Amino acid sequence: MPAVSASAPGKVILFGEHAVVYGQPAIAAPVTGVNVRVIVQANPLQPAGSIEIESPALSFHATRAELPEQHPLNTLFQQIEQYLRISRLPAMKIRINSTLPAGAGMGSSAAVSVALIRAISRYLGFPLENEQVNQIAYEVEKAFHGTPSGIDNTVITYQMPIFFVRNQPPQLIHLKEPLTLVIANAGEAPSTAQMVAGVRLRWQQYPQRYEQLFQRIGAIVQSARQILEFGSWQQLAPLMEENHRLLQEIGVSSPALDKLVEVSLRCGAYGAKLTGGGGGGNIICLIQPEEAEQVSQQLLNHGALHTWLTTLIPTEEGNQQ
Ligand code: PMV
After folding, report:
1. pLDDT by residue (tens digit) across 7-41?
2. How much of the chain exceeds pLDDT 70, in percent?
3. Pocket of ligand 1, candidates 22, 140, 152: which has the most ligand atoms within 8 Å of its Cβ, to mutate?
4. Homologous superfamily of the 179-312 domain (CATH)
5. 141 lines ligand 1 (CB under 6 A)
6. Tens of pLDDT along 191-245?
7. What are 138-182's pLDDT values in tens digits?
């Protein structure tokens, strides 16, 4: 069998992180400038079921037999076997290449899952539909992260901006205009699971206050959706600032994130906010494309460890790579 490959992009959450865990909507978009690429090929000298996975980019090399039972990759292989109703995957050699930073809130684990599920199912001659890819990737995300909302695997599977409510089918957002963002990394963050657990503790302590904060974020997400579909991108700026303030109140920002938000606004960004789990990690800034270089440079001068530029382009459907 010839080698088969599949790719998956990164992602950013534009609005609604954390509140999404409590049933509020959120909006996320793919970041196509970074991706995970998986290549699957036969390993004819090995017995059925023997799978070798290697990824210099992720500093990972193992065989399926060596993986602990609870390992997310084991969940992934078992789920594919279940979906395709096969008792054992054939012997394969899998290579995972990635330009997506791990642990930076850009959806690295979900991108690895989606690219793997696509590549393996294509290799077997039974390419899975988006809905199935997404379901399997969600099971794997749970093995990775505990109780994720499912927004990462969904936006990465569909490769389109999405309006997402937990446990509901995603609604694709058709952008009216392109949107240019600089993503800047403020340094290491606690795991998303830790950040989500912290919010849960505070929510249990002050339920009314937190419910109110989540609802205010939900209202921002609804307005942002209208603007993305029917308005002009500059109108998103005050919503980003308001969303960031509410995330500060929820206790998931950090001095480093706040500083980068402030620097970007001072240097010409229209709006900025933290994105993802917070506590560190990334901010996103909304910018005029001509300002991108300049804003990136200023962010780097003021402590950002890395920046990425991404433009979301209006498209009818996501490109499956
Ligand atoms: O750090 P990220 O991008 O994986 O963000 C997770 C988003 C949260 O809302 C904080 C958690 C979730 O599962 O939705």
Report:
1. 999 999 999 999 999 999 999 999 999 999 999 99
2. 98
3. 152
4. GHMP kinase, C-terminal domain (3.30.70.890)
5. no
6. 888 999 999 999 999 999 999 999 999 999 999 999 999 999 999 999 999 999 9
7. 999 999 877 888 999 999 999 999 999 999 999 999 999 999 999
Residue range(s) in the chain whose domain bears CATH number 3.30.70.890: 179-312
The active-site residue out of 17, 141, 152, 242 is: 152
Where along the chain do the CATH 3.30.230.10 domains lie?
Answer: 4-172
pLDDT on residue 290: 95
69-126 pLDDT, tens digit each: 999 999 999 999 999 999 999 999 999 999 998 777 899 999 999 999 999 999 999 9
User: In angstroms, what is the span from residue 239 Cα to ligand 1's centroid?
Assistant: 19
152 is catalytic: yes
Cβ–ligand 1 contact at 24 (below 6 Å): no
171-176's contacts with Cβ under 8 Å and 24+ in sequence apart are 172/317, 172/318, 173/27, 173/225, 173/228, 173/229, 174/229, 174/314, 174/315, 174/316, 175/228, 175/229, 175/312, 175/313, 175/314, 175/315, 176/228, 176/229, 176/230, 176/231, 176/232, 176/314
Hey, which of 11, 12, 20 would you mutate to test ligand 1's pocket, going by the most ligand atoms within 8 Å of its Cβ? 20
Residue 148 CA: which ligand 1 atom is closest? 13
4-172, what's its fold?
A: Ribosomal Protein S5; domain 2 (3.30.230)
Using only the alpha carbons of the chain, give its radius of gyration: 20
Quote the ligand 1 centre to 276 CA distance (angstroms).
Answer: 5
